């Protein structure tokens, strides 16, 4: 059975190695200099203030419970949909609702938060009048993947709470992405991973189930500047603007077209999963403007999808834009505002934008 480890205990490691010399302990151990840092010291190294560290730990407490519930699938009785729709007309999954309630309760009880806004809430929800921060979140992104046991995740974005505004004033959330003090997502995949930035680089953490905390596994992740991989829902092709149609057509022409190289395509249908792949090995991800539903030209939400991903991608040296400009410079007009998104490897995003000039 796995036991919690003392991370500095090289004696224990030597003992294990002498008993099972052929086994490589590559997980959370201080093994052969492979020491993993816990979350709080990693954040202190980036000079994150203590109250923000406490808020981040609160958010992560919720993600640990969601990770457990997601992994229980049918055993937890939470598969399938509720009979409701959220404010955006999307069918709510049972796990969407549970994850939202969990997040909301834990954040509002914490005392750190003046208000929250969520994909699953019609408007913002007031917290502590004296809370220093406001949090926007998508409790379960990619929730259509729940029923097929595929990738899903939680996305969050933290801003400072403006002074002089009441906790029940949704206008507090009308702050551009460039004012975020922290953004991240937790991916509930084969391992539970946290990807987070507080403005000092984008770092990867893995949830270590042996001691119940997140451990830093990669500091200052960098998106490769060039790529041969793209992610877009191709079934919408005929509804895109001509510029995006031309760009993607040239990608498809591969080494027989103007790009003179072959591209590969991937689509997980959960933004967290697609963005994670881009962060790991480069690529371009886009949900462009389309005319499929005239009243809704964009799909992704600014406050709890595009902005946090933009912060993470830019901190990793990539770009995150619309066809008209930088996502994080958009001044929001409403909590559930939707936006066009083009993000990923710097040179590829620039290549895409060149079609709009
Ligand atoms: O939250 C919206 C979302 O589920 C994203 O996570 C994902 O990128 C996109 O929608 C998938 O869209 P589609 O259903 O068109 O594949
Ligand atoms: Mn989502």
Structural descriptors:
single chain; 357 residues; alpha+beta; Fructose-1,6-Bisphosphatase, Chain A, domain 1; D-Maltodextrin-Binding Protein, domain 2; 8 helices; 29% helix; binds 6-O-phosphono-beta-D-fructofuranose; binds manganese (II) ion
Radius of gyration: 21 Å
Would you give the CATH topology of the largest domain?
Answer: Fructose-1,6-Bisphosphatase, Chain A, domain 1
Low-confidence stretches: 1-9, 23-29
Q: What percentage of amino acids are in beta strands?
A: 15-25%
Order of neighbouring strands in the sheet with most strands? 1-11-10-9-8-7-6-4-5
Q: Give the domain tally.
A: 2
The structure class reads alpha+beta
The CATH class of the largest domain is identified as Alpha Beta
Number of beta-strand segments: 18
Q: For the report, how would you describe the main beta sheet?
A: 9 strands, mixed
